Amino acid sequence: MKLFRLQRIWIFIALYISAIYLTLPVMRFFLNYLYSTLGKENLSIITNIILISVLPFLAFLGIRKGIFKTLLIVIPIIVSLVFILHMERPEERMHFLEYGVLGFMVTKALGLRFKQVLLAVIFISLAGSLDEFIQFFLPNRVGDLRDVVMNAAGGGLGIWVGWFLR
User: Fold this and answer.
1) Model confidence pLDDT, tens digit, residues 47-88
2) Closest Cα to residue 94, out of 51, 136, 157?
3) Integer angstrom CA distances of residue 130 from 7, 10, 31, 144
4) Which of 2, 8, 120, 132 could form a Cys-Cys staple with 143, CB 3.0–4.6 A?
5) Nearest to 160 by CA among 8, 58, 90
6) CA–CA distance, 35 with 45 (Å, rounded to integer)
7) What is the pTM of this model?
8) Based on the number of CB atoms within 10 Å of its own CB, is 95 exposed (0-12), middle (13-18) or buried (19 or more)?
9) Where is 158: in which H helix or E strand?
């Protein structure tokens, strides 16, 4: 039964990454549409609300584990939020969240031992690097080393949350 559950998680991870990669060619058009209808400032506000809404949810889950463990999860998330809320473009923030979710899922699939966490970090870094590499070849996108780091940082935070919640 556990093997079947792991297979389902890996299938979902593969579909999730495929969705990220397959939407790369059209995402710029979609973002431009959102910018033109909502405006950059409103899109930033919506993105910020989505990101900030994660914090109370995780704090609520952490309260069951005790105050020390709650602080272990809330403090890195607050530091990350302060950092990412100062990003210029809303899509950078969403990328951070997108790879955070991926990091969380990979942690659920691999486990929490040091070697498994290290494999999760490598996996997320490779997935984020491939994301930017693909963008390098798209006419309407730009691959950026800074985005590779942001993808890995988001994934790392997702791995941290996955570790905490297990």
Assistant:
1) 888 877 877 776 676 667 676 767 777 777 777 777 777 777
2) 51
3) 23, 18, 21, 11
4) 132
5) 58
6) 12
7) 0.83
8) buried
9) helix 145-165
